[in-house]
Amino acid sequence: xxxxxxxxxxxxxxxxxxxxxxxxxxxxxxxxxxxxxxxxxxxxxxxxxxxxxxxxxxxxxxxxxxxxxxxxxxxxxxxxxxxxxxxxxxxxxxxxxxxxxxxxxxxxxxxxxxxxxxxxxxxxxxxxxxxxxxxxxxxxxxxxxxxxxxxxxxxxxxxxxxxxxxxxxxxxxxxxxxxxxxxxxxxxxxxxxxxxxxxxxxxxxxxxxxxxxxxxxxxxxxxxxxxxxxxxxxxxxxxxxxxxxxxxxxxxxxxxxxxxxxxxxxxxxxxxxxxxxxxxxxxxxxxxxxxxxxxxxxxxxxxxxxxxxxxxxxxxxxxxxxxxxxxxxxxxxx
Length: 334
What we know:
Helix content is 56%, strand content 13%. By secondary structure, the protein is an alpha+beta fold. It folds into two domains: 15-264, Beta Polymerase, domain 2 (2-Layer Sandwich); 272-330, Methane Monooxygenase Hydroxylase, Chain G, domain 1 (Up-down Bundle), CATH 1.20.58. The protein has a seven-stranded mixed beta sheet. Helix 5 packs antiparallel against helix 6 (187-218). It is rod-shaped, with a radius of gyration of 35 Å.
């Protein structure tokens, strides 16, 4: 079994890797010269490209029997998930969760795929770990054997990482809900975390829903490289993405409920503070009235000549405050 190792060449900067599939799950890394000598009789060819490089478009347009329309589509910058049957080939554009270090999962990575009965061309701008999984599988002899199995394995790896991301979002929402009752002092941080989770759910859902539709259409295509069994498996993958969309909808609803719960907690705390301030104000209202009344600088203020007047006034004011407190307790207001 030959070991498949990614090939980078100084002649074609946009060529990230080239493999010749042996039809049994393994593959061999090809040189630029071997790519030029390839023909369908020698087996299945897989070319993996970085379309952001300047020479990638020229390289694609120079490939034999590759439609200029397909070459342009493989270099498009802004794309949506789609499936197009062109002659005897399939043009497929998918999106995957961004698992690169330091990246946000909802910053999706797109992959463009052209499938023919004996040739596979993929192009991307940013690194995609699902492609790295397929390269590793080729080296271990468990990779794709033909274009159809290549597509199925790639979709399976994209779906696997999507499911992981959705599960992580659900776990994060669970953790936030538990913190609502245990970390009241961290409410500003919890609000920010919850808003970020809601945004991620919304963005992922917006990107994954069109992919679900594209996979459902793919499972109905009758391209030469898609057997009946393969279409059945693709339908299962489409069902998985349908569940991912439903899980994201549920996660978003849970995030909204959690946000309402958090708002209720904040409102309850504010109401408690306002209620306490109201009780204090109610107790001190008659006392303020008395002090204001006796503080008027006019003649005839009672007790002005009595040395015990101030003490009696203080005792009376304390008695009034205690009476009001007991009244509020009796009415169960405090």
